[in-house]
Amino acid sequence: MTRENALGDFLRARRDLLAPEDMGLRSYTVRRVKGLRREEVALLAGVSTDYYTRLEQGRERHPSHQVLDAVARALRLEAAAAEHLFRLANPAPSGAAAAAEPTVSTELLRLLDHFLDVPACVLSPALDVLAANPVAEQLYSGFAQFDNLLRMTFLDPFARRFFRDWDQAARGAVSTLRALSAPFPGDRRVAEIIGDVSLHSPAFVSLWSRYEVRPRTSEDKRLWHPDVGEMRLHYEAFTITSAPGQQLFVYSAEPGSPGADGLSLLRSFAGDRGRAGNVGGGPADERPVDGTI
């Protein structure tokens, strides 16, 4: 993504994802582009091809709310992606926050301590693990490091076993990174993690180029733990309004299910380590709680 024309990059990527036949369009000539042509998006949005071309090329700097809304509908953007479109077309003033809050408050850490029965952790827009309770550390104990969920998903070979549907997990991680980092275009940590993973993972580069913006707020997952086996867990994401950019992720399981039994085992593992005087030991705890990764 180029900062010079981020809006154009977004529009091109999103029209590439749409098949003409899915939009009720017919093509009588050989197509040289994947997805929709510019003139087809313009037709669906009810604007001239020249206007849409200027918008995509970055030559139209002040599109109206009505035009952006029409383009969002034409590209079938979901709510988060449409919000991102408006943000790109109308960037925040230079005085707005360039980076998310990097530290976890004492009050939030105290609250996290109460999630002793289920895995819970606080993530940054770059998907850094800023804080986690002992059960979460046990859940992710098969990874070499419990530090950044994007890096773990794409660069740690264990991820292909841990996430029983790795493709879904990978796509979700990328779309969540897009959504959480969008309000902080100047966040250096986000740029750093994108660059790091891009250098080592062609799979990430391919997914990143799709420009999907969709935060994971609620989802069922199948996970595999080396000491517990497969678990079906549900997670919810909660926005932390007192710390812009941070989110609290909490896993749970249906009572009486194998997933609930698995979480019970993870709690016992965490309790054993606590009684041994090493609560939360291991790679994840080498990180300071202040969010420095």
Overview of the molecule:
The protein has 293 residues and is of the alpha+beta class. It is built from 13 helices and 5 strands. It has 2 domains: 87 residues, 434 Repressor (Amino-terminal Domain); 181 residues, Beta-Lactamase (2-Layer Sandwich). A hairpin with a 3-residue loop joins β3 and β4. The relative contact order is 0.13.
What attributes characterize this protein structure?
434 Repressor (Amino-terminal Domain); 2 domains; 293 residues; 13 helices; alpha+beta; Beta-Lactamase; 5-stranded antiparallel beta sheet
Instruction: Write down the CATH topology of the largest domain.
Output: Beta-Lactamase
Silhouette? elongated
Number of domains: 2
User: Largest beta sheet, briefly?
Assistant: 5 strands, antiparallel
In terms of structural class, how would the helical and strand content be classed? Answer: alpha+beta
CATH architecture of the largest domain: 2-Layer Sandwich
Into which percent range does the helicity of residues fall?
40-55%
> Count of helical segments?
13
Text of the CATH class of the largest domain: Alpha Beta
Q: What is the typical, i.e. mean, pLDDT? A: 86
Distance between the termini: 25 Å
Question: How much of the polypeptide forms β-strand, as a percent range?
Answer: 5-15%
Taking Cα atoms only, what radius of gyration do you get, to the nearest Å? 21 Å
Helix-strand sequence? HHHHHHEEHHHHHHEEEH
Number of strands: 5
Sheet with most strands: strand arrangement: 2-1-5-4-3
Given as residue ranges, the uncertain stretches (5+ residues, pLDDT < 50) are 277-293
